[in-house]
Hints:
- The chain has three helices and no strands.
- The protein has helices at 2-34, 38-75, 80-93.
- The radius of gyration is 25 Å and the shape is rod-shaped.
- Helix 1 (2-34) packs antiparallel against helix 2 (38-75).
Amino acid sequence: MAVQRTIFANERTLMAYLRTAIALVAGGFAAIKLSHHVYMEFIGLTLMPLGVLMAVYSFVRYLNKQKLIRRHQQSFQSTSQHREELYEKQASRYGNID
Length: 98
């Protein structure tokens, strides 16, 4: 269950990066189209490639983290049986066996 939560967290992080990248590209586009000042066009021309770079970075980061999660998932050994034995041992000390 914890691995699944980690995968979902990785996906949420990807979506946050992509949302920010789209906002940067849209802001750059709006700065170019809606303003007639040279400095706004410069800002727009800076923001658009920055947004594209952020989108590429987010995909690379997502794929690397996904690989790392899969590697950890393969080497993970369930401890639920061990925990159950410890719980029963501790509960039997108090006479509480469920």
